[in-house]
Amino acid sequence: MARTTASHRSLAAAVASLACVTGCTIGSPAATGGGGGCAALEGETITLVVPFSPGGGFDTAARIVADPLGEQLNAQVIVENRPGAGGLLAINRLVNGPADGTQIAIMNGTGASASVLGEAEGADFALTDLAYIGRVATENTVLVRAPEGVHRTWEEVRAAGDFRFGSTGPGGADYATATILIEVFELDARIVTGFPGQSEAQLALLQGDIHGLTGPVDDRRAAIEAGELVPVLSVTRERTEIAPDAPAVGEMALGPDQAVLLESLLTLNELGRPLVAPAGIAPDTLTCLREAFTRAATDPEVVARAEQQRRTIGYASGADLEAVVARIGGVPAQFRQLLRDAYRTAS
What we know:
This protein is an alpha/beta fold. The chain is built from 12 helices and 12 strands. It has helices at residues 57-73, 88-95, 109-117, 154-159, 173-184, 198-207, 217-225, 256-271, 283-297, 300-308, 318-328, 333-346, and strands at 3-5, 45-50, 76-81, 103-106, 130-137, 141-145, 163-166, 189-193, 212-216, 230-235, 273-278, 316-317.
């Protein structure tokens, strides 16, 4: 049964607005050498771990790139689902596993980062315990409602009493996003957790048990286009193509304390859905994986195949992601404390 956690808290003390240290746009593929494979991984079987159940957005993204990555490496890449603890269990196992390139994972960048910063139960790793191969997809987040939902616009959400966000629980990006929205906009709201997956949470939304769900645009695209879900807010710097009528947080007039919290969340979102390996991986093996992933993720045929599945490959290089992780490490204390308080309440 779903359980209710988190409630409205007062805004943090006023602080200076957080700036993007190295710029906020990433994703241009670096030039790499041609040819596939490398001595360390050629002919090997590589397990690409998905920390969630089959059929969801992370599973789909992993399967889109698995075979092309294997072709570039002259290796076999198999996808294995290892759900648990909002995606944290699989990452814990990864960082303690063999660092030879045969074990990699697709990670929930926002959820994992928020869990690490907030010292959530089950986050027994640091972001620096991981090596970053490249990003498969972005985390352009939208808040959606049911077509018959009682709160039809973002302004109505802000004016609502006891607005209920749905979430799979601490460890998920939806939990972190709802936590920040409640604080920044002083919502009279709570987070209902305990849903095994997004499909169950979406069913609860359609049945009226909860009022809103946050998640990546790609995961909601088909339902939005079919009229089964309606975007209310884009948790992005600019409005998204799929939800042009939903205001973006980046266009709102915010005080410095609001801006610093939202900018921190958007920085976490830049990590997106990266492929990661244990940090102890040999430099030449990591380079091999990065170059192979770049070729696979930017291959026009792979991009087209993703689009046929209503998915967008939001490529960023491993080096880009290292810069994002460095910025995440510099988020302000009030953002970390807000997450700590939220996870402590949830435990």
